[in-house]
């Protein structure tokens, strides 16, 4: 869902007839990207993120090298996406895949044809990067340590258990790419065929099947300490119920990005913010954990989210206000499924919901209309005043309209920035969940909440406590940014 009105078939045929009657003209030039501005702002994330990887945590050399190689491949994907978007935009315009910005209706910008479904360009680059990265980490000649963070040749001999683990990770990685590719194609079909919204809700349930069938991780949960006397167990194996939860999580994450939309830059912006939080969370978990399998899971997540973050930054440079491209359902489905896969295979699906708090709130606000209890219009967007250029909130149940009703009328750009700042603030609770307790015992690994009070009151040497408090403060700073 984007703030656009798709051209009708009549309009498309009229355009074709007019083009046949008049001399051919070239398409209007696309506005230059805002890549420079986007990169300057993104330094707020890059500096602490690279500090955590390179200096703060003593990450194994092979794992660190693989993360940095993935980052380098992702950086190349950023520039490739920047170059591909204008080419794809011209092609989509020729195929009449364009729309008009509803939030600029009544102004000259509101009559400009804006190419949509540009998520297909981002998705293609992402899949190419992810497949190429398999050579460095998931091929037989790249093994040097316990998979999946292996690199280059080595004379080490591997046990049958290690090779079996390698096969499991390769199967899960390919299943993840299959689910992401499947969801991207379904999103593009939705953009082309304009699928009814009730059918849209069911599309992710199909795309998530390869992931669920290949999932070989745990299906257990840690019972919170206050509930242990009542349950009688510390660890509970949910079995198929846990897989049902993961299936529902994939459906929610995919649709939540699509529902929380309607402003230039909002869909891509929230993806960039959530991706940055996921990356910081993964690096902190790798740094504080001593469990190799636990590190594998979070490294797996990094390998998927870094390319998503880089390609999304490139798309944001064209989609930021005033947008020169629309991302379409192709991108929202693709981005939502990628983050869901990263959370599920990274074994932090519970923490992932904290990153999606604004999307959860938006879903709860939308539930009466989505369920049919209240009439649901096609576009649940605010009203635009062409005289002032400001948006006014309507009674539709969305977070966008709620913010306008609470904070008053404002411009589209200011509203988008406010919503993204709110998304950032909602990530602060996850900072506590990204810090370990003492003696290498991972608090997140036990689903126990870390707080500054816990870090100061638990037993241990003063030097260890200082290190843990330092981790806590760094996590807070990273999640604020």
TrEMBL record:
The keyword Protein biosynthesis is annotated on this UniProt entry: no
Pathway note: Protein modification; protein glycosylation
Localization annotation: Endoplasmic reticulum membrane
Listed transmembrane segments: 37-55, 67-88, 118-136, 170-189, 201-223, 244-263, 269-288, 300-321, 333-357
Keyword Transmembrane helix included in the entry's annotation: yes
Bilayer topology annotation: Multi-pass membrane protein
Superkingdom of this protein's organism: Eukaryota
A single MF term (Gene Ontology): glycosyltransferase activity
An example Gene Ontology CC term for this record: endoplasmic reticulum membrane
Keywords: Endoplasmic reticulum, Glycosyltransferase, Magnesium, Membrane, Metal-binding, Transferase, Transmembrane, Transmembrane helix
Family of the protein in this entry: Belongs to the glycosyltransferase 4 family.
Protein name per UniProt: UDP-N-acetylglucosamine--dolichyl-phosphate N-acetylglucosaminephosphotransferase
Taxonomic source organism: Rhododendron griersonianum
Lineage: Eukaryota, Viridiplantae, Streptophyta, Embryophyta, Tracheophyta
């Amino acid at each position: 869902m984007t703030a656009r009105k798709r051209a009708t078939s009549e309009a498309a045929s009229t355009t074709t007839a007019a083009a046949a009657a008049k001399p051919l003209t070239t398409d209007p030039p696309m506005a230059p990207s805002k890549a420079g501005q986007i990169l300057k702002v993104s330094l707020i994330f890059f500096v602490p993120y690279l500090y955590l990887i390179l200096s703060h945590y003593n990450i194994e050399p092979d794992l660190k090298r693989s993360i940095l190689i993935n980052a380098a491949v992702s950086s190349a994907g950023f520039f490739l996406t920047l170059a591909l978007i204008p080419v794809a935009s011209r092609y989509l315009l020729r195929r009449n895949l364009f729309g008009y910005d509803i939030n600029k209706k009544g102004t000259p910008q509101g009559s400009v044809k804006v190419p949509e479904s540009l998520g297909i360009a981002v998705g293609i680059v992402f899949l190419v990067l992810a497949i190429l990265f398999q050579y460095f980490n998931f091929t037989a000649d790249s093994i040097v340590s316990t998979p999946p963070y292996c690199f280059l040749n080595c004379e080490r001999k591997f046990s049958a258990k290690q090779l079996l683990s390698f096969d499991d990770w390769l199967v899960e990685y390919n299943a993840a790419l299959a689910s992401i590719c499947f969801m991207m194609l379904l999103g593009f079909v939705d953009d082309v065929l304009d699928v009814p919204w009730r059918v849209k809700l069911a599309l992710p349930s199909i795309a998530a099947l390869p992931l669920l069938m290949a999932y070989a991780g745990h299906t257990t949960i840690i019972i919170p300490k206050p509930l242990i006397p009542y349950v009688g167990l510390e660890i509970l194996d949910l079995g198929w119920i846990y897989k049902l939860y993961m299936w529902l999580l994939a459906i929610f994450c995919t649709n939540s990005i699509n529902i929380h939309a309607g402003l230039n830059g909002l869909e891509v912006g929230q993806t960039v913010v959530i991706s940055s939080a996921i990356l910081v969370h993964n690096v902190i978990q790798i740094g504080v954990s001593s469990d190799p399998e636990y590190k594998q899971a979070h490294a797996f997540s990094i390998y998927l989210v870094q390319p998503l973050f880089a390609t999304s930054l490139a798309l944001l440079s064209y989609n930021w206000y005033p947008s020169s491209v629309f991302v379409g359902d192709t991108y929202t489905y693709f981005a939502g499924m990628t983050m869901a896969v990263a959370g599920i295979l990274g074994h932090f699906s519970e923490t992932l919901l904290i990153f999606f708090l604004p999307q959860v709130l938006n879903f709860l606000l939308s539930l009466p209309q989505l369920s049919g209890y209240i009439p649901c219009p096609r576009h649940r967007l605010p009203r635009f005043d062409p005289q002032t250029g400001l948006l006014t909130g309507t009674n539709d149940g969305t977070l966008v309209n709620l913010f306008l009703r609470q904070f008053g009328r404002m411009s589209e750009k200011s509203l988008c920035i406010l919503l993204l700042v709110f998304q950032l603030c909602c990530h602060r609770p996850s900072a506590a969940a990204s810090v370990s307790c003492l003696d290498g015992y991972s608090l997140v690994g036990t689903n126990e909440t870390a707080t500054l009070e816990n870090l100061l009151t638990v037993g241990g040497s003063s030097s260890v406590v200082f290190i843990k408090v330092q981790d806590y403060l760094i996590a807070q700073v990273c999640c604020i940014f």
